[in-house]
Design a protein that fits this description.
Blueprint (H helix, E strand, L loop, with lengths): L3 H16 L5 E8 L2 E8 L38 E6 L2 E6 L1
Antiparallel strand pairs: 1-2, 1-3, 3-4
Amino acid sequence: MAKPRQLLALLALTAFGSAAHAECKRAHVCDNYGQNCSYRDICTSTLDLPSVGLNPLPSLPSMELKPLPSMQLPPLGTTRCEYKQVNGQWRNVCQ
């Protein structure tokens, strides 16, 4: 049977290890087919840390048609979602 100290240490490492990857990534985001582009942080959670990296190189706009609006409810902490081109690919971006 494992000692309580070992279990506590394993639990702490697991908690800190998962928190280390909770950060936003800087991306080139365009509204419509390469128009109205800007650099923004794309996060997986509202609790993620802002990025500190350099801006990525702008990508070529996708020639695919814009997907239909998503019918899913926005995640907690956001009010609306909309498809935008992120680094040349259509992604559902929530704000």
